[in-house]
Design a protein that fits this description.
With 312 residues, the chain is mostly helical. It has 2 domains: 175 residues, no CATH class; 115 residues. 80% of the residues lie in helices and 1% in strands. It is built from 7 helices and 2 strands; from the N terminus they run H-H-H-E-E-H-H-H-H. The protein has a two-stranded antiparallel ribbon with strand order 1-2.
Length: 312
């Protein structure tokens, strides 16, 4: 089987979720109520994911030796559980589990009753479950798997930051109880609900501010639009008035030109009539002269004709 960082991270997420489910089911069977046994807000227990990743890294080659695999995985899981309990108690001053009332326990952090199931589960994981999960993971296209992994990383980091911030603020946990899981879960739940409520309130306030700003903006836009519409309307009226004045001026000039042209045409007509009259009078004078000549010399044409005949 080929392992890489992406595959190990997916195994971590898958087994963290499966571990959380197993813890919740056991708690329902034992206490008949649901308790979020995880350290984080989300539905996963990182200790199971880390346990499977470490066992897969160290013991995959020993999958054919069941007894060795069982013993070594029991030791690895027990060590991881002890160290996790120790450091979480030092950091948060609280415990998420306590085995003090069970036989063969070490400081109530680990016990034989849990080591044996961890060893059996590890054998099942290495020999059966891991190969099946890997076959399914390798079916997923690499680019899609990358996006899925990035999404899980972001969710996991945010969940860790929020959970650490919430739990570090708890200063008054019940010191009589060594297993503070339920108390921590309740406080985390209350804090998360309060945070969600605060976020909803802030969101509503922001929405109201946006609505008010939008109304103001709409009013300003309407006022500005009306202002410029009135301004444009006044400019249009002024422009139309200016055009009318210019058109009237041009019309008056055209009328003046037309009148001058009409006067010139009238003058030309008068001159023509006057010239015609003068020509007619001159023609009449010439006609009278011709008549007088003809009456004075009635035989001028006959003589001319006789002269021409004789010459022939």
């Amino acid at each position: 089987m080929i392992y890489n960082i992406e595959i190990y991270f997916m195994l971590f997420i898958i087994y963290s979720v499966l571990g959380w489910i197993m813890e919740c089911i056991l708690n329902i069977i034992q206490k008949h109520k649901f308790v979020n046994r995880g350290f984080l807000i989300g539905p996963y227990c990182p200790i199971y994911g880390f346990g499977v990743v470490i066992v897969s890294l160290l013991l995959t080659r020993a999958s054919k030796h069941i007894i060795i695999l069982f013993l070594l995985s029991s030791v690895i899981c027990g060590t991881l559980e002890y160290l996790t309990s120790y450091f979480m108690e030092k950091i948060f001053k609280a415990r998420w589990w306590d085995y003090s009332n069970k036989k063969f326990n070490i400081n109530g952090r680990i016990c034989l009753e849990t080591l044996i199931p961890f060893g059996l589960i590890s054998v099942f994981v290495i020999c059966v479950l891991n190969p099946w999960i890997l076959d399914k993971l390798y079916i997923i296209p690499k680019n899609i798997l990358t996006y899925v992994i990035i999404g899980f990383i972001i969710i996991f980091i945010v969940d860790n930051l929020v959970s650490f911030n919430i739990i570090l603020k708890f200063k008054n946990l019940n010191k009589k109880e060594k297993d503070n899981t339920e108390e921590i879960t309740e406080k985390v739940k209350e804090t998360a609900e309060a945070a969600i409520k605060r976020l909803n309130t802030e969101r509503e306030e922001l929405i109201n501010k946006i609505k008010i700003s939008r109304l103001r903006l709409v009013k300003n836009v309407r006022y500005t639009r009306k202002k410029y519409q009135d301004k444009i309307k006044n400019q249009q009226i002024t422009l139309i008035g200016t055009f009318k004045v210019r058109i009237q001026t041009i019309d008056e000039k055209i009328r003046g030109y037309a009148k001058d042209l009409s006067d010139k045409i009238s003058s030309i007509r008068e001159n023509q009539l006057k010239l015609r009259k003068e020509i007619k009078e001159k023609f009449m004078k010439e006609s009278k002269l011709n008549k007088r000549l003809i009456s004075a010399f009635p035989n001028v044409e006959q003589r001319e004709y006789t002269r021409k005949k004789k010459s022939k």
